[in-house]
Amino acid sequence: MSVVQDINFSVSRGEMVGLIGPNGAGKSTTIKTLLGLNPFYEGDISLPSDKSYAYIPEKPVFYYDMTLWEHIDLMASLLEMDDDIWKKRVEELLKLFDLEKVIHESPATFSKGMQQKAMLIFAIISKPSLYIVDEPFIGLDPIATKKLLELFQHEQARGAGILLCTHVLDTAERICDRFILLAEGRKKAEGTLADIQEDCQLPGASLLDCFYTLSAREQEE
Fold it and tell me: What pTM was estimated for this model as a whole?
């Protein structure tokens, strides 16, 4: 039995694509397949030719017996980054996300928002060509969210592509260039907001309204 079927899409340089859909639509399975964590699939997956991509999961993952600094140091070592480069980047990111005071503490003591900020630092220090981001706004306060959006804009200007999976549709509507709507394991709509509005026959409608209409249509079918 197939969980997802006939899903094809691309993310161009400097583009942010929103992957949206109701719970159980196949978003997580799609992301796991992209990351090579799903061996049971048929099709082709093309990641950046330089193999430079970063995944930011919805649920932060840490070694709780290691400090934040030890996590960052380990990450930089695995990526074989030059000390001067990654330390400068980390210094800027710690300051940006207000984590300087907890750099030598375990993420086990952090709030959900602080843990999410730490995961963002892990991803950004390598300056990848592609970001695969799963629900990055959960747990972030408004100030941290704004800082993250500014970072995304900077990374897009640098040429990085971003695949953003989120349920925060009002934010996605403002920042994404295109959208992919999944439902029941299939791609039901793709394109700009204008494209999706046309598909729903709802000119000028919000992404949330379009999402609701397409999801209701799927249930009726």
Answer: 0.89
